[in-house]
Automatic annotation (TrEMBL), chain A:
Its EC number is 7.1.1.2. It is found in: Membrane; Mitochondrion inner membrane. The keyword Nucleotide-binding does not apply. This is NADH-ubiquinone oxidoreductase chain 1.
UniProtKB/TrEMBL annotation, chain B:
This is NADH dehydrogenase [ubiquinone] 1 alpha subcomplex subunit 13. PANTHER family: NADH DEHYDROGENASE [UBIQUINONE] 1 ALPHA SUBCOMPLEX SUBUNIT 13 (PTHR12966:SF0), NADH DEHYDROGENASE UBIQUINONE 1 ALPHA SUBCOMPLEX SUBUNIT 13 (PTHR12966). GO terms for cellular component: mitochondrial inner membrane; respiratory chain complex I. The chain crosses the membrane at residues 35-52. The keyword Transmembrane helix applies. InterPro entries: GRIM-19. Complex I functions in the transfer of electrons from NADH to the respiratory chain. Accessory subunit of the mitochondrial membrane respiratory chain NADH dehydrogenase (Complex I), that is believed not to be involved in catalysis.
From TrEMBL, chain C:
Keywords: Disulfide bond, Electron transport, Mitochondrion, Repeat, Respiratory chain, Transport. Belongs to the complex I NDUFA8 subunit family. GO terms for cellular component: mitochondrion. GO terms for biological process: mitochondrial electron transport, NADH to ubiquinone. It comes from Dictyostelium firmibasis. InterPro entries: NDUFA8. This is Uncharacterized protein. Signal peptide: none annotated. Accessory subunit of the mitochondrial membrane respiratory chain NADH dehydrogenase (Complex I), that is believed not to be involved in catalysis. Complex I functions in the transfer of electrons from NADH to the respiratory chain. The immediate electron acceptor for the enzyme is believed to be ubiquinone.
């Protein structure tokens, strides 16, 4: 048996590896997005700072840190400070059950998907708290709208994930990857893949469903009153969520990322590039169109897919 | 083609006028939609067949694993019982506590008959 | 009364079953007849636990290396024993060589 010191040191080292790896990944994901979007618009992205712009995230981080932090006088200071920390922490915690090697998981629990679904539902709190604590009408309404959008698309995404779990018969992430040895789940469950992709886009407030965020550019998103550090934490949390969703799509539909690491990384990055591709291609949805889509189109379709999967799985039991 | 002696050419439409603009709604793919649906559904059916073949074998393996685990069940149940009796086993919570399921192997044997 | 992990018990299930089969059957019959009450089957429970402890103590004393290999393999495969046939065969051979002197009457 190991003693307590060994356990704490091992856990600390593993968590440090996960966090630092995630932060580096998030930093370069911002750069990747700008370069890929630029390439799709026939221009170069940032290429001044480093060799091909590789030091751009560092420059962005430095700028954000050196900015002046403005806190509104009428804001609720404690919750105003907690909200971005909550969002960022939740985005990092979700990565603890993601397996990146055959045995390299930070926490190899037998119900990994349940953990991800549950904790990502807590992420909505960060947005509500941010909008509410800013004590500004526009931020409050923006926060409510963004939270409503996230919750609506979580339902459809949850149903699709439920179909994947029923299909694979297990709720363990590594087992789901094992089940795709013969054939990836994208082939039998192709409509599920499309639905999960759209729901993941809306879940992470990503274009074309980014009305709450776009409004922060204008006047009223949930993070309009945040500057420098708070904004940086929201930004990093959002990109960590995006990378997590793209890796989850690769795990559930494209056969997992553990057996062949280079191919697995390519799968994850191709999903990330698809997210960026959709951003560069499609126009934005208006909020009521977004809500109609979530409840009237995606949810019935997801229910249909779930019923189909259940009937198929029951036939072979 | 401008001759080098001409100084100024009027910018006229080409001979015969410009071609007509198509402003009606057009559909993009020349393949009929039903063919695309049929193709996708046939690929999905083949994928489902391959997956279910593998799944049946996997289920058989899981069944075997459960059977092996059931060979150990009496020891686990006996340990549980003795620990329960050794502890101050009173229900201090306001719950509808139910005892753990035991006799699974026996029940399974009965079902097999 | 030392406790053994579930992986250790599953790894040496064949040996345990050959030696302690009668005790297990008596325990199960008692449970089926007298219901789930722990107090009424206390004697059979202690018998089962004693038999298991007896066998496992011998296994740990003599076959420790094979047992450790099997347990490591089982735990790495999410408690699957079908992936660990080789290590289990080694453990079974080691058990057969040491079962014979200790539990001879039950080994036919």
């Amino acid at each position: 048996m190991k003693n307590i010191l060994q356990i704490v040191l091992e856990g600390g080292l593993k968590s440090l590896i996960v966090i630092i790896g995630l932060l580096i990944g998030v930093a370069f994901a911002t750069l990747l997005e700008r370069k890929v979007m630029a390439a799709m618009q026939k221009r170069r992205g940032p290429n001044v700072v480093g060799i091909v712009g590789l030091l751009q995230p560092l420059a962005d981080g430095l700028k954000l840190v050196l900015k002046e932090t403005i806190i509104p006088i009428v804001a609720d200071k404690i919750i105003y400070a907690i909200a971005p920390i909550l969002t960022f922490t939740i985005s990092i915690v979700l990565w603890s059950v993601m397996a990146v090697g055959v045995q390299s998981v930070f926490a190899s629990i037998n119900s990994g998907v349940l953990f991800i679904l549950a904790i990502s539902s807590i992420g909505v709190y960060g947005i509500i708290l941010a909008g509410w604590a800013s004590n500004s009408k526009y931020a409050f309404l923006g926060g409510l709208r963004s939270a409503a959008q996230m919750v609506s698309y979580e339902v459809a995404l949850g149903l699709i994930i439920l179909s994947i779990i029923t299909y694979a018969g297990t709720i363990n992430i590594q087992e789901i990857m094992e089940n795709q040895n013969k054939i990836w789940f994208i082939v039998p469950l192709f409509p599920g893949f499309l639905l999960a992709f759209i729901s993941a886009l809306a879940e992470t407030n990503r274009p074309p469903f980014d009305l709450p965020e776009a409004e922060a550019e204008l006047v009223s998103g949930y993070n309009v009153e945040y500057s420098s550090t708070g904004f940086a934490l929201f930004f990093l949390g959002e990109y960590a969520n995006i990378i997590l969703m793209s890796v989850l799509l690769a795990v559930f539909f494209l056969g997992g990322i553990v057996h062949n690491k280079i191919l697995g990384a390519m799968k994850g990055v191709s999903m990330l590039c698809s997210f960026i591709w959709v951003r560069a291609t499609l126009p934005r949805y208006r909020y009521d169109q977004l809500m109609y889509l979530g409840w009237k189109s995606l949810l019935p379709f997801a229910l249909l897919i779930y019923v189909g999967v259940i009937s198929m799985v029951l036939m072979i039991k | 083609m401008v001759g080098y002696r001409q100084k100024w050419v009027q910018d006229l439409p080409p001979a015969g006028g410009f071609p007509k603009l198509t402003y009606a709604r057009t559909s993009v793919s020349p393949i009929p939609g039903s063919y695309i649906f049929a193709g996708v559904f046939s690929v999905m059916a083949i994928g489902t067949y391959i997956f279910f073949e593998d799944k049946v074998k996997r289920n058989a393996r899981e069944e075997e694993e459960k059977r092996r685990l059931s060979m150990i069940l009496p020891i686990l149940q006996a340990e549980n019982d003795i620990n329960f009796l050794a502890s101050p086993h009173q229900n201090v919570y306001f719950t509808r506590w139910m005892p753990p399921q035991i006799g699974k192997r026996a029940v399974a044997l009965i079902r097999e008959i | 009364m030392e406790s053994y992990t579930r992986a250790e018990l599953v790894a040496s299930r064949e040996g345990l079953w050959t030696v302690c089969q009668n005790v297990f059957d008596v325990f199960e019959k008692c449970k089926m007849e007298k219901g789930n009450d722990p107090e009424r089957c206390l004697r059979e429970s202690t018998a089962v636990l004693g038999c298991a402890q007896k066998v496992m103590r011998q296994v740990v004393k003599n076959c420790e290396k094979q047992l450790d290999n099997t347990v490591k393999c089982v735990e790495e495969n999410n408690m699957r024993t079908l992936a660990c046939q080789n290590e289990e065969k080694e453990l079974q051979d080691c058990f057969d060589t040491l079962v014979a002197p200790h539990f001879l009457p039950s080994n036919e």
